[in-house]
């Protein structure tokens, strides 16, 4: 009996493994997966003897290469050592309250709490917020949000999924939810594949009508989109203070999660929230008590990044928008499909035939263009393709190189055409 059971478990594990076979094949065969980068010069990277232009990093503002940010590290490391290896509950270098204060001010949020990564936040904070209640999860939410919800389920919460970006479906599910327990709604801000933000005001309204708490992961919006102003330097808005400010929303019933690991090129993340909840999470969310904190270099670059953002951020975003708009205009002129309707620097290009992913990868590699391959099951089969991320540190010549390569790919009928 025991043997039979373990065979069955083995078989179902293998079936589950088969889902990952495309990815495993690419991991071992594709030069663009699991690569070792030997050298970086600006946005040029060397893998072995091959130089490529990098359109795969999320360093949107180019702060990873900014001399002022780089220079900020040494003094802080001399002052604090390389790593403040206390549990946060025991001790925090004063860099923490300094960053939290600046961040809270930038976001115009009631308060903020820093933790090492967004992944830590989802896995620990979603279960605390959900308790044994009901969670409503966007069907296309990022994997790390999904995993946080699965942890919440293991701790007694009930998980319901609503159709991606569908406020009416969410409202219908919330109407049917039992009264007396505050529902939690989890979703992405700027989507990591499409580059589009959700209709936040409509989601916020539905949540407020049902006294639900809206939990939004704006990993890719923070640092790029921000408050709208007559003097904004681009349609991204001003100050890069994230999706809540971009839509002119308040933080009533909204908890915003974001991170420094994309636009700010640093290993740190935050949750914008009321002070009572911040204090509760200090004892209830595992990473504050049990995980190692971010290294001093990350705290230094996050702090310097916030200063640079105040002084130069809008000029950098204007440049980023100009470069991105150039690529998007070319994609449109070629008649190609991309889901990006927002102009953010995340441009997903699905293939005409998903089986061509190895060919397309080789094509891009040969022309010296490095991208994020979007293979199954990272994306559904009908969305297999690649994602280009533009950063402010890409030169105009590199943008030109990308544009010429896209023309050649479109000419070889490898990319899906717009409907
Ligand atoms: C939407 C989204 N959430 C969370 C993460 C993970 O962020 P972190 O590196 O801070 O854990 C990513 C990273 O790719 C992401 O795209």
Annotation keywords:
four-stranded mixed sheet; alpha/beta; seven-stranded mixed sheet; binds pyridoxal-5'-phosphate; 14 helices; 419 residues
Descriptive overview:
The protein is α/β, with parallel strands linked by helices and 419 residues long. It has 14 helices and 14 strands. Helix 4 packs parallel to helix 12 and helix 7 packs parallel to helix 8. It is globular. 46% of the residues are buried. The mean pLDDT is 94. The structure holds pyridoxal-5'-phosphate (PLP). The site of pyridoxal-5'-phosphate has 13 residues, from helix 5.
Write a short abstract of this structure:
The chain has 419 residues and is of the alpha/beta class. The chain is built from 14 helices and 14 strands.
Order of strands across the main sheet:
4-10-9-8-7-5-6
Which structural class do the helices and strands define? alpha/beta
- For the termini, the CA-CA separation is 55 Å
Mean pLDDT: 94
Q: What's the SSE pattern?
A: HHEEEHHEHEHEHEHEHEEHHHEHEEEH
Describe the oligomeric state of these chains in a short phrase.
single chain
Helical segment count: 14
Sketch the major β-sheet: 7 strands, mixed
Beta fraction: 5-15%
Ligand roster? pyridoxal-5'-phosphate
What is the strand tally?
Answer: 14
Radius of gyration, in Å, reads 22 Å
Percent of residues in helices comes to: 40-55%
- Report the uncertain regions: none
Shape: globular
Outline the secondary-structure elements:
Layout: H1 2-18, H2 21-29, E1 39-41, E2 44-47, E3 50-54, H3 67-80, H4 95-107, E4 112-115, H5 118-130, E5 134-138, H6 143-154, E6 158-162, H7 167-176, E7 184-188, H8 200-209, E8 213-217, H9 243-246, E9 254-259, E10 269-272, H10 275-284, H11 286-290, H12 296-333, E11 346-350, H13 357-366, E12 369-370, E13 372-374, E14 385-389, H14 396-411
Parallel strand pairs: 3-12, 5-6, 5-7, 7-8, 8-9
Antiparallel strand pairs: 1-2, 2-3, 4-10, 9-10, 11-14, 13-14
């Amino acid at each position: 009996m025991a043997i039979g059971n373990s065979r069955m478990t083995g078989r179902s594990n293998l079936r589950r493994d088969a889902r990952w076979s495309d990815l495993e094949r690419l991991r071992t065969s594709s030069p663009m997966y699991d690569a070792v980068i030997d050298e970086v010069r600006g946005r040029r990277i060397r893998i072995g003897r091959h130089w490529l232009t990098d359109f795969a990093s999320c360093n949107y503002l180019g702060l990873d290469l900014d001399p002022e940010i780089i220079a900020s590290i040494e003094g802080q490391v001399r002052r604090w050592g390389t790593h403040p290896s206390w549990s946060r509950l025991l001790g925090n270098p004063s860099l923490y309250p300094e960053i939290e204060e600046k961040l809270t001010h930038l976001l115009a949020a009631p308060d903020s709490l820093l933790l090492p990564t967004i992944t830590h936040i989802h896995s620990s904070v979603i279960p605390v917020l959900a308790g044994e209640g009901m969670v409503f999860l966007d069907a296309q939410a990022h994997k790390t949000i999904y995993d946080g919800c699965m942890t919440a389920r293991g701790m007694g919460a009930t998980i319901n999924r609503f159709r991606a970006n569908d406020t009416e479906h969410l409202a219908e599910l919330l109407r049917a939810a039992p009264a007396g327990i505050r529902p939690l709604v989890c979703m992405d801000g700027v989507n990591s594949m499409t580059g589009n933000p959700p209709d936040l005001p409509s989601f916020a309204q539905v949540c407020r009508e049902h006294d639900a708490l809206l939990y939004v992961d704006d990993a890719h919006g923070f640092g790029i989109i921000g408050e709208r102003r007559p003097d904004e330097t681009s349609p991204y808005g001003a100050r890069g203070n994230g999706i809540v400010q971009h839509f002119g929303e308040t933080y009533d019933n909204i908890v915003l999660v974001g991170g420094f690991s994309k636009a700010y090129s640093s290993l740190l993340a935050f949750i914008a929230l009321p002070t009572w909840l911040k204090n509760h999470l200090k004892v209830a969310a595992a990473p504050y008590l049990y995980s190692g904190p971010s290294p001093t270099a990350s705290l230094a670059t996050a702090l310097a990044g916030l200063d640079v953002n105040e002084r130069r951020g809008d000029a950098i975003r204007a440049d980023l928008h100009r470069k991105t708009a150039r690529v998007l205009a070319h994609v449109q002129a070629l008649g190609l499909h991309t889901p990006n309707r927002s102009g953010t620097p995340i441009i997903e290009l699905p293939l005409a035939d998903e089986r061509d992913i190895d060919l397309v990868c080789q094509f891009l590699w040969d022309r010296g263009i490095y991208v994020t391959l979007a293979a199954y099951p990272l994306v559904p089969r009908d969305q297999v393709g690649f994602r280009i991320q533009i950063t402010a540190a890409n030169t105009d010549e590199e943008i030109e190189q990308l544009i010429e390569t896209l023309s050649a790919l479109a000419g070889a009928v490898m990319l899906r055409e717009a409907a």
